[in-house]
Amino acid sequence: MPKEKAFFFPLRPQRRKGNKIRISSKLRSIQLIITFTFTTVTVLVAVIVSIMLYNKFAKTAEANANLNMQQIIEQVNYNLELYVNGMRNIFETAEGQVTNSSSVDSALLSERIGMLMGSREDIVSVAVFTPQGGYVIGTPGQNMRLNTQLDTQSWFTSAKKTSEVAFSAPHIQNLFKGRYTWVVSVSKLIQYRENGELKTGILLIDFNFRTIDELSKQVKLGKRGYAYILDSLGNIVYHPQQQLIYAGLKYENVEPVLEYAYRSYLDESTGEKRFITVRTLAQTGWKIVGVAYYDEIVTTKRDLNQFLAWFLSAVILGVIIVSILLSALIASPIRRLERTVKLVGEGDLYTPINVRGAYEVEQLSKRFNLMLQRIRQLMDQIIYEQETKRKGELEVLQSQINPHFLYNTLNSVIRLAERGKTEEVVTMIQSLSRFFRISLSKGKNIITLQEELDHIRHYLVIQNIRFKNKFRYKITAQEEVLQLQTIKLILQPIVENAIYHGIEMMPDEGFISISAELRDELVVIVISDNGLGMSQETMKLILTGGNKSGSGSGVGVRNVNERIGLYYGREYGLTFESEIEEGTTVTIIFPALKTQENLDKPKEKEDETSA
Amino acid sequence: MKTKRFWLTLLMCAGLWTTVTSCFNSAPDYISTNKTRNIHMIVKMNRGDYWNTVKLGAEAAAQEFNVKLTFKAPDSESDIDEQIGMVQASIKQKADVIILAASSYMGLAQVVDQAAYYKIPVISVDAEVGSARVRTYVGSNGYEAGQKSAERLIELLNGYGEIGIINFTNSSLNEQPESTSTVDYGARDADERERGFLNYAARYPNVHVVEISYTSSNITNAEDLTQLMLLKHPKLRGIATLNETASQGAAMVIKNLGKDNIKMVAFDSSPSMMELLQEGTVQATVIQNPFSNGYLAVKYAVEVIEGMDVPERVDTGTKLIDLDNMLWPENQKLLFPFVR
After folding, report:
1. If exposure means fewest CB atoms within 10 Å of the residue's CB, which of A75, A102, A148, A167 is most exposed?
2. CA-CA distance, A180 to A174, in Å (whole number)?
3. Where are the domains positioned within chain A?
4. Is the pLDDT of residue B24 over 60?
5. What is the mean pLDDT of residues B271-278?
6. CB of A598 within 8 Å of any CB in chain B?
7. Nearest 10 degrees: CA dihedral of A587, A590, A595, A600?
8. Which residue, among A94, A244, A229, A240, has the nearest Cα to A169 in the 3D structure?
C-alpha cells in the first residue's frame, strides 16, 4: 500500500509539524468560530438589554422608594408636630393657671398642677422659678436638690432671653430629688401673683421621651432603617441608638442634614448607600431625619438583580448549548467529509462518500463522489491503456520474427532456387534479410520514416516475388519526411491487408501506392490499393475490433491504430476510405517529429514505471 | 478531544456565571444578623449599677447583632470559684464566645486556657485575665484611673495629709486565708488602679497613704471598713475609693458622720453617687464607660465569630467628674444612661 500511495500522490503535502500551528488552526475551526460569535453576540445583546431594563426599573424603584420614605417621614413629621402642639397647649394651660391664680402658693393651683401632671405620663415636672433662680412653686412633693446650677442651664437662659416658648435640647433633669431623667424642657417667662404682687417668673415643664420614642418607633424604613430627631443646633433630640451615640460608639453625620430644612438625598459617606430625608418642624426647629439603607429599601432592585442574574445565566447557558449544537450540526458533516477525503488522500479510492447534513455539504459530498468516480474511471483507463500498449508491443515483437511469413518466403525462395532463378533468389534473400534487420532494428521502437519505407519496400519486393508479380507498387516520399521519426512496423500490417484481402482475390493486376508527405507539421502516409475494397461495416469493424484480422499473418491494423493513438495521442491514427471493387485508401497521420535519441527517453521511463 | 472541549465549555460557563453574578450580588459589608450567635457574658458581680450598665451596653449590642446573650455573675466580686464554675459551664454549653470580667487575674487564667482549648474565643472586659489566649481586652486603663483619682485628691488636700484607700478584691499583697497557692489572686483592674494611685501619691512627700483596705464588694462591709479606718486614723484628710461599692459605703459613712472636712474621690457613676456628688459629700469621681465596655465586648465577640480582625486592646477611657463638669452635655451623656 505505501508504495501505491506514493505512486498515486507523490506530491501529497506532508503533515505539518509543531503543536502551535495545530492549536491555532483548531481555534479557527468552524464550530469554534460559530459558537464563539453566536455566544458573544447573543450574550452581548442580552447583557445590554438587561442593563437597560435594569436601569429603567431600578430608577423607577428608587424613585418609588424615595417617595415612599418621604411620605413616611412626612407622616412622622405631622405626628410630631401634633405632639409638639400638644406640649405647647399643655404649657399654655399651665401658664394660664399660674397667671390667673390669685396667688401661687394657693392650694388650688398646686392641686391643678398635680392634676395636669397626673393627666399626662410624659410630664416629668412642672415648676416656676424666679429669674434669679429661686424656686417658687412646683409639682407637689418635689424636693429641690442642692447645687442644681439651674441658672446655667439652657432652658433657663433661653426663657430669660425671649418671651417665646423655648424648647430645650435633651438634658438631665437634676433639679428634684429622685431619679435623674433625660428630659426636654419647655420654658417661658411668665407673670404670676404672689401675695397680691405681680411678679415675673419662669415656668418650666419637663417632658420625657416616651411619646417621641413611640412616634419614632412607628417608622419602618426597611430592617435597619430608622429616624432620628435633631434640634436646630444639631443636638440629637432623639435617636433609636441614643445611648450608643452618647457613649461615642456610634456617630451620626448631622452636618449635611443641618444645612437644609427640607431635603432628600443619597448619602454615601459611611460607605453604604443610604437615603436621607429631612423635614423640619415649624415651631421648634427640630429636624426629623429618616435614614433608610438603599439596598434594603430598594428591594425591587435586588429582586430585579436576582431575576436578571438568573435570566442572564439561563440565556447564556441556553445560547452556549444552542450554539454548540448548531455549530456541531454544521461542522460535523464537514469534518466527516474531511475525514473521508483524508482516507481517499491516503489512497483508498473506493471509500464511499455519503455524508449527510446541510444541503451544501451534501452537494459537496455528491460532487466529490462524482469526482472520485471519474478518477477511478481514469485510473482504470490508464491501467487498460498501459496493458494494451504492452500487449501491442509484444505483438510487434512477435511480428518482428513472423514465422509464418518467414516460412512462406523461404518456401518461395526454395521454389525459385529449384527453378534456377538465381537472380530472384538473391533479391528475395537480400530483401528478407533487410526486412528483418529493420524489423528488429536493435529493439528500438522508434525508427526513421526512411527505414520504415525501406522496410515496407523489402516486404513488397518479397511479396511481389511470392505472388508472381500479381501487383505493382509504388513508393513515393518527400525528401523532408524521410528523416522524421515513426513508430516502426506501421505500414506492413496495412500493406499485408491490402495484398491478402484486396489484391490476392483480384483477377486483374493489383497496384499498391504508398506516399509519405509532410502536411502542416503532420506526417501523412497514404496507402492505397485498387483491390476489392470493403463494405462500410467491415471498415467500422476494423478499428473497433469486432473482426480480428483473422489471417493472423501480420500485426493487426487495429493494433497499428492503437499504437499510434497511445504514442502520439488519440487524435492521430488511421483513416479508411474504401469502395467495393474500387479499392481501399488508408491514411496514416501523426505529428512530425525529428529523430532524436532523447525522444525515446520518456517512453523508456514510462516503461520502467509501469513495470 | 471531546472531553477537553467539554471542560473548556464548562470553564467558559463558569467564567461567565461568575462575571454575571459578581455584577449583581455584592456581599453586604455590615455584620449579618441572620444567624443567632450564642455569647456568654460573665462579669464579676450580679449587683451594682456599674454591672447593670455593662449589661445594658451588652444588651444593646446583642439586640443590634442578633445575639443570644447569656449574662452570668456571682453574688460577690470575690467569689472566684463560682466564676470559674460559670466559665466551665459556658464551655460545656458550647458558647460561641465567652466574655469575661475576671475577678482574679491568675485565678481564671487556667479556665480561660481551657476555653481556648475547646476553641471558644475569650474576650476580656473591664478586668484582664492572665492568659495569652484572650482575643481582646475591652475596658479602661486602671493605672491611669488610679492616677487621676490621686491627682484630684492630692489637689483637694492641697498636697499634704493622710490618705486612706478602699480597694476591692484582695491582691497578693494581702494574703488571702483560703488561698493555698501563692499566685496573684487579685483582680487586675483593682491592682492597676491601686498601683496608679500609689505611684502618683509617691511624688508628694507630704502625702501619706496610711491604709489600704479591701472590701469584699458589699456596701455594709465597705462602711465598716471606712469607720474602722476613720477610727484608726483620726488625722485622715482624704479617702480614695477604687470601685463602686467601696465608694458608696465610704460616702455613706462620711455623709452620716457629717465629716465635711474629709475629701473623697470616688469611683464609677451610679445615680446615688451622682446625688452625693451634687450634694457635695463626694468631691469627684473617676468614671469609666461601662456601657461602652459592654457594647464593645459583644460587638467584638460578634466580629471574632465572623472571623474579622479585632484590636488586641480597646481602651474605653476614664474621666474625672466633679460638680462643675457633671452637667456638661457630653458628661451628662456619659453619666446618665439614656433609658426610656
Report:
1. A102
2. 6
3. 400-610
4. no
5. 88
6. no
7. -120
8. A229
The C-alpha cell that represents B56 in the structure block: 445594658
Kindly state the cell numbers that stand for A356.
449527510
Cβ–Cβ of A171/B329 closer than 8 Å?
yes
- Answer whether A221's CB lies under 8 Å from A227's CB: yes
Chain B residue with CA closest to A23: the answer is B1
In CATH, what number does A400-610 get?
Answer: 3.30.565.10
CA A589 remoteness from chain centre: 62
| Cβ B125 vs Cβ B101: under 8 Å | yes
pLDDT at site B302 = 92
What pLDDT score does A208 carry? 87
Say whether pLDDT at A118 is over 50. yes
- Give the A window 10-69 contacts with B, CB below 8 Å: 43
Provide, as residue numbers in chain B, all residues whose Cβ is less than 8 Å from the Cβ of A248. Answer: 292
| CB-based contacts of A518-521 (< 8 A; 24+ apart in sequence) | A518/A478, A518/A480, A518/A481, A518/A484, A518/A592, A521/A591, A521/A592
Residues of B in contact with A332 (CB under 8 A): none
Q: Which of A171, A316, A320 sits opposite B332 (nearest CB)?
A: A171
ipTM score for this prediction: 0.79
Q: Give the closest residue to A105 by CA, choosing from A199, A34, A21, A183.
A: A199
CB nearest to B338's CB, from A149, A246, A305: A246
Q: Which CATH superfamily is domain B23-140+289-317 in?
A: Response regulator (3.40.50.2300)
CA-nearest residue to B20 within chain A is A309
pLDDT at position B174, please?
A: 43
pLDDT in tens, A18-49: 454 555 666 777 778 887 888 888 888 888 88
Query: What DSSP designation does B164 have?
Result: E
Residues of chain A in contact with residue B323, where contact means CB-CB under 8 angstroms, are 147
Q: What is the CA radius of gyration of chain A?
A: 65
C-alpha angle with apex A376: A375 to A381, nearest 5 degrees?
Answer: 95
Is A253 near chain B, with CB under 8 Å?
no
Q: Which residue of A has its CA nearest to B17?
A: A313
Decide the pairing of beta strands B236-241 and B161-168.
parallel
Q: How many CB atoms are closer than 10 A to CB A455?
A: 23
Residues of chain B with Cβ-Cβ distance to A246 below 8 Å are 333-334, 338
* pLDDT of residue A210 exceeding 60: yes
Find cell 447583557 and name the residue: A47
SS3 labels along A546-608:
CCCCCCCCCCCHHHHHHHHHHHHCCCCEEEEEEECCCEEEEEEEEECCECCHHHHHHHHHHHH
- On the question of a common fold for B23-140+289-317 and B142-287, the answer reads yes
CATH 3.30.200.20 corresponds to the domain B142-287: no
**Mean of the pLDDT values across residues A237-257?**
82
| Cβ of residue A320 closer than 8 Å to a chain B Cβ | yes
CB contact under 8 A, B30 and A272: yes
Q: Kindly report the number of other CB atoms within 10 A of residue B102's CB atom.
A: 31
Over residues A276-305, the pLDDT tens digits come to 888 888 878 888 888 888 777 666 667 777
Which string of DSSP letters, residue by residue, matches A220-284?
Answer: --TTT-EEEEE-TTS-EEE-TTHHHHHTTSS----HHHHT-SSEEEEE-TTSS-EEEEEEE-TTT
| Cβ-nearest to B271 among A145, A179, A317 | A179
